[in-house]
Write a structure and sequence with these properties.
Rossmann fold; GMP Synthetase, Chain A, domain 3; 30% helix; five-stranded parallel sheet; EC 6.2.1.16; 661 residues; alpha/beta; ligase
Length: 661
């Protein structure tokens, strides 16, 4: 098999000045390990995880109030015990003074879709967090209390989160475009004390008043003591803007800050595994699982990811397009840990056109630009050209949320040139990070993720639980990481957590993706392993199928479902297509049959092609492959998927009709 094209090669001078290079030098100078290249360093990090994570904590001067007795007291999974006895606080690391965090350094840049923009220095951020913290404390919020937020990606949200974390209280957020039931299903599990929300939000050229949703949400959360409302659209002339702040507000945001004005900035020391926030599984079947991450694990993991893998630090402007309902928001704001300026954007990424975010990057001299693979694919399909934008500050483009196609890599390289690193990044909400992705001294190959992350013992396992190379296998982690979930919420015996990750390979984390680990050490993600295409013994991930289908100019979106193994020994392969206006199913189907046979295999040519108006997606934008498979094979739709967990529940109707036919 021919070696893939190299689309980015590290500059030796730049790599030699990176934080990763400085970390290696620091390790060598202290006699910890002598690692001349990335692979040697990675091997040490997974063979001796206790030494690696302890060294990382020391290198980044993690501020332990009480020192740990050891780095890793128990390495079993589940149940690993990291840094027992240690106390610290995430917010203290995000806001502590130091290089790049002096009062006059820029901490936050914010822009809203309609042009509203402003920034905050680190001094202003500290002052406002201190005020919010003091006011929340006066409202009775303390260690272990839950603060939930139905909020956009704005500075007020960041301030509220840091204030919550500084108190040792527990944060959880949803994007304001979530439906009421989806929000209730998440927040009601936590029995929150405080709700922080807004009067309305902006998306795709118009405003949306959410006062009715807030009132219903308050009625569904009987433990609420206080509702804080940010007048987010106050003064906006956008159609649909609310005329006043919700009547349900117990206190407005600005009044909250005034109550705490002049307060000292303090931090509650908490244990290493004390809950920092609760993130959620998709909730497509049953209630979403509340995934609890700890202060210490997230602090260490995000210091490592930001500093060593993205080489981010003072002087960088770190951006990722995200909402507060996706883990990438939690990842983005951790740019503060390394002294970067975090760049927040709220609104549609495609308004008034696909160029909007790229122009934003040019305007703000963004150095690290993160987005999703579907967004890059949409830019490609739109034939967007980036030459009109001055992106000379840009050095890394990150992509996550789905496998980035080879065509997506090519489009980025053609538009940004060979000096911009393509950082395809794969992980998940479960660990709130990526564990395969970029390194400043490793090449980028077309269609591949460069390396497993430091401390991430990534492998591909076959059906017998044996590692394989250059072959498709289950993505697993064979050693614990500090940012693995502390627990699931309301899972006192840990049974749901064990079932989610450890029921297939005891003592080994099974992530649920198909992956190929290549002989070069790079990796290729093929899609979810529970929705794989297994045709005549040839197993293939859905990502490869979508790469072929969605490169067709007549296809706007697609969904592939293999019913094999569910409806008898041999099921059918279905391909659902959302067609462009001028395209016909007859023409597109004929061309796709030829291309799928040529690029994949004759066995992966679908039995049926069906035109649909939309592809059902979760609230985080992922295609609903497994729920649709259940519906097509006769499962009761109400048991197969929760409509409240979908962006577009109406998209299910055509699949339900087919399943009942």
């Amino acid at each position: 098999m021919a070696e893939p094209e190299v689309v980015w090669t590290p500059d030796p001078h730049v790599a030699g000045a990176s934080q990763l290079a400085r970390f290696r030098t620091w390790l060598r100078s202290r006699g910890v390990v002598d690692a001349d290249d990335y692979d040697t360093l990675w091997r040490w990090s997974v063979d001796d995880p206790a030494s690696f994570w302890a060294s990382l904590a020391q290198y980044y001067d993690v501020a332990f109030h009480e020192q740990p007795s050891t780095a890793l007291a128990d390495s079993r999974m589940p149940g690993a015990r990291w840094f027992p006895g240690a106390t610290l606080n995430y917010a203290e690391h995000a806001l502590r003074p130091g290089e790049g965090k002096s009062d006059n350094d820029l901490a936050v840049i914010f822009r809203r879709e309609d042009g509203l923009e402003h920034g905050l220095t680190y001094g202003e951020l500290r002052t406002q967090v201190a005020g919010a913290r003091s006011a929340l404390r006066d409202l009775g919020v303390g260690r272990g209390d839950r603060v939930v937020a139905l909020v956009p990606n704005s500075p007020e949200t960041l301030i509220a989160f840091l204030a919550t974390a500084s108190l040792g209280a527990i944060w959880s957020s949803c994007s304001p475009d979530f439906g009421l039931r989806a929000v209730v299903d998440r927040f009601s599990q936590l029995e929150p004390a405080v709700l922080i929300t807004i009067d309305g939000y902006v998306y795709n050229g118009r405003a949306y008043d959410i006062s009715g949703t807030v009132a219903q949400l308050q009625a569904e959360l009987p433990t609420l003591r206080t509702t804080v409302v940010v007048p987010y659209l106050a003064g906006s002339s956008l159609p649909g803007s609310p005329t006043s702040v919700s009547d349900g507000a117990d206190i407005e945001w600005n009044d909250l800050l005034r109550r705490g004005h002049g307060a000292a900035l303090e931090f509650e020391p908490v244990s290493f595994d004390h809950p920092l926030w609760v993130l959620y599984s998709s909730g497509t079947t049953g209630l979403p699982k509340g995934i609890v991450h700890g202060h210490g694990g997230i602090t260490l993991e995000h210091l490592k990811a930001m500093g060593l893998h993205f080489d981010a630090g003072p002087g960088d402007r770190f951006f990722w397009f995200t909402t507060t309902g996706w883990m990438m928001w939690n990842f983005l704001v951790s740019g503060l840990l390394v002294g970067a300026t975090v760049v927040l954007y709220d609104g549609s990424p495609a308004h008034p056109g696909m160029h909007a975010l790229w122009q934003f990057a040019a305007d703000e001299d963004i150095t690290v630009f993160g987005t999703s693979a579907p967004f890059i694919q949409a830019c490609l399909k739109d034939d967007l050209q980036l030459s009109q934008h001055d992106l000379s500050a840009l050095r890394i483009v990150g992509s996550t949320g789905a496998p980035l196609s080879a065509d997506g890599f090519r489009w980025l390289t053609q538009n940004l040139g060979p000096s911009v690193q393509i950082a395809s990044f794969s992980g998940g909400t479960d660990l709130c990070t990526g564990f395969i992705g970029p390194a400043p001294d490793v090449p980028v190959w077309l269609g591949e993720l460069s390396r497993p992350a430091l401390g991430a013992a990534v492998a591909a396992f076959d059906e017998n639980g044996e590692p394989v190379v250059d072959d498709v296998g289950e993505l697993v982690l064979t050693q614990p990481m500090p940012s693995m979930p502390v627990s699931f919420w309301n899972d006192p015996d840990g049974s749901r957590l064990r079932e989610a990750y450890f029921d297939v390979y005891p003592g080994v984390w099974r992530h649920g993706d198909w992956v190929t680990v290549t002989h070069r050490g790079s990796a290729i993600i093929h899609g979810r392993s529970d929705s794989t295409l297994n045709r005549g013994g040839i197993r293939m991930g859905t990502a490869e199928f979508y790469r072929v289908v969605e490169s067709h100019p007549g296809v706007l979106d697609s969904l592939v479902i293999d019913t094999s193994g569910t409806a008898g020994e041999d099921g059918e392969l279905w391909c659902f297509l959302v067609l462009a206006d001028a395209a016909t199913l007859e023409e597109v189907e004929a061309e796709l049959r030829t291309e799928l046979r040529r690029q994949l295999s004759p066995r992966h040519v679908p039995d049926r092609f069906v035109a649909v108006s939309d592809v059902p997606r979760t609230l985080n934008g992922k295609k609903c492959e497994v729920p649709v498979k259940k519906i097509l094979t006769g499962r009761d739709p109400e048991r197969a998927v929760s409509r409240d967990a979908l962006q577009n529940p109406g998209a299910l109707d055509s699949f339900i009709a087919l399943g009942s036919a």
